[in-house]
Input
Amino acid sequence: MQKTDKLVKKEFNVEEVRNDFPILKRLVNDKPLVYLDNAATTQKPQNVIDALTNYYTYDNANIHRGLYFLSELATEQYENARLKVKEFINAISASEIIFVRGTTEAINLVASSLCRSKYFSEGDEVVISNMEHHSNIVPWQLIRDRKKINLKVIPINDAGELDLEAFESMITDKTRLVSVVHISNALGTINPIKKITEIAHSRNIPVLVDGAQAMSHLKVDVQELDADFYVFSGHKVFGPTGIGVLYGKTEFLEMMPPYQGGGDMIRTVTFEKTTFENIPKKFEAGTPNIAGGIGLGAAIDYVNQFDRTELSNYEDMLLKYATERLSEIEGLKIIGNASEKASVISFVIDGIHPYDIGTIIDTDGIAIRTGHHCTQPIMKRFGVPATARASFAFYNTKEEIDKLYAGLLKVKKIFE
Amino acid sequence: MTIEEKQKKLIEEFEQYTDWEERYKHLIELGRELSQMPEELKIDKYKLDGCQSQVWIKAELKDGKIYFEADSDAAIVKGLVALLLKVYSGHTPDEILSNPPEFLKQIGIDKHLSPTRKNGLAAMMKQIQMYAVAFKTLTAKK
Output
């Protein structure tokens, strides 16, 4: 990958972009792959694949340990990736970037560490929302049961937007943390994070933001959002699986006890007492996913070539087009119609189970997600057992949406 | 008809259809033909875990033979369970246990609807076999 001048961005051209993603050329069931499950995971550009291959082919060594050439090289690349993440989300310092396995581990890290500290007392409250992924519900339930705290849930309206008035009124002196999703994976709703942090901070309550879906769609600036924690997964932003990020403001990370114990996170160890490293190492026990970190750095390089606004505009165009096309289908209902929405469409068709929709269009090489999307409370809120979901990335095209449309008509025909 | 004969008949039935759309249509048709399971039986006791859609299977032993009832809210899954019921309902536990669902491979179900696809095919077959084991143990005790 050539280094691009920060000021001069590469012009976005979808055909050129598609050439960067080798998997998009493959056939599925003898038809060209139409990959519309980007909310589950995104595909990887060639430079990310190359970064992984190069690392294992030429540069593999353990980091932070050896003083020999390769170890230094691997360490430098890994720490350089941390710097790239820092720049990417505009953190103040690279030490605020903790590498983890993914969003789920990041939330579990914060929940477990706060649980181990004296942060929560009996009767305290954590506020989440009705549109959270299970990974932002279950970790809090686990500590709720251990610390005897309460979970409060911000309701959502019929369009799939948070009720901010209800949010304000549910905050009490006992509220200790707000943990909300930036973009809903099941509804596509983009939540007003800045407003949420303003409301919470006016009462001195920190906010954790689940940014799993947001990273690929939006330019995220943690300082502007004023998030106290911001978490995301590498694989949902064109990077490898098994690597993710916990951003935390220094004051919180310093205060929190380690999550796991082991190598790399200690300063001195005796059988009587161990002293810990400073952040970020304090939270990174054991040999990390070195290749994953480097791969994530490459993914950031890839995205950074482009003007993010141009990418967002293109995705908005896809969303608008897909919404129009799908709305033409009789009996199809879109679940989630927030005014601020990312390129994710959840839908149901009268009388046809999402499972049947997904199975049939798969024969045409079209990949969509069906099911509850790990958001069972949302399904309950909208009174559906499951939905079908098409989610778009900037490498998708209008032609692919036409194929989805045609596939859905075929489904309808089969079930007539 | 023996289980083996029934399996053979289904293989022949599916051989008429050359393309996938037709096969799915036939599968859905089989599901539609399946007699309705009363709503009061669609309870957790009979519900299978691990499927993307809801599936219920109930079994009853009459004169040494097991009779199944089943339903699903997804049409293709209902077709799949209908296929299994067509083959296994009305047979003794021993017959059921000694005839694994080899026919699924031959009708091409395994390619597009492989058991790993969370459609519950594996779970449904396992449930049928578990009923057979349970009734076998029960009758042996008597």
In short: Residues 80 and 297 of chain A are 8 Å apart (CA to CA). Chain A has a mean pLDDT of 95.
